Amino acid sequence: MDRTAEERIRDFSEVDLGFTAEEAVAEAQRCIQCKKPKCVEGCPVGIDIPAFVKAIAEEDFKKAVTIIKQDNMLPAICGRVCPQETQCQGVCILGKKGNPISIGHLERFVADVEEKRECPVPAEPSGKKVAVVGSGPAGLSAAAELARLGHAVTVFESLHEAGGVLMYGIPAFRLPKDIVQAEIDAVKRLGVEIKTNHVVGRSVPVEELLSYDAVFLGTGAGLPYFMGIEGENLPG
Hints:
By secondary structure, the chain is of the alpha/beta class. It has helices spanning 5-8, 21-28, 38-42, 49-57, 61-69, 75-81, 103-113, 137-148, 165-168, 177-188, 206-209; strands at 129-133, 152-156, 193-195, 214-217. It folds into 2 domains: 5-113, Orthogonal Bundle (Fumarate Reductase Iron-sulfur Protein, Chain B, domain 2), CATH 1.10.1060; 129-217, FAD/NAD(P)-binding domain.
């Protein structure tokens, strides 16, 4: 359910209000639990979608979010901005004759109702150090997964806030910044260290990265594409 146009013109708050608990359970109960779920094949990270949807149908919301976090540590973000209509939701069998399961809304719901964003228990320390350059969705996801494996992870972010495109590119009416910050804080609780205002190649010598056992580069698409039309650089 979306906020009305009269409400939206007055602020930049989130437009989509998401599911209530009753709506989420009713939607989850529509799932027919396919033996060969196409939705899992359509998910880029292979989340066990039927399992978490079933948990919601049974009103076990904590179990649902735990299942999601086995493969995705950013469910509140992905539930809002992933293009489910062309991925998991787009191949839902129910969509052939009606409306597919609203997988994104269900993922967002359980992430939002989780009272405290709990983190999986990391493995025993591996003794390995990994540097992650960039704290956008790729960098945060890589950092979380590496930390879960027991590696010591340091993220270098050039800007003064972590999040990359999540914080600076996607408008708040689509992705509220408090949601982004909550997910970042959850990644930090895994033991990930995030250093902002650290520009690799300037304030951080490239040689410093060579002291790590591995380096993940997630610098993102920092420059926009221009259309090359007259007046595109004019103010406003």
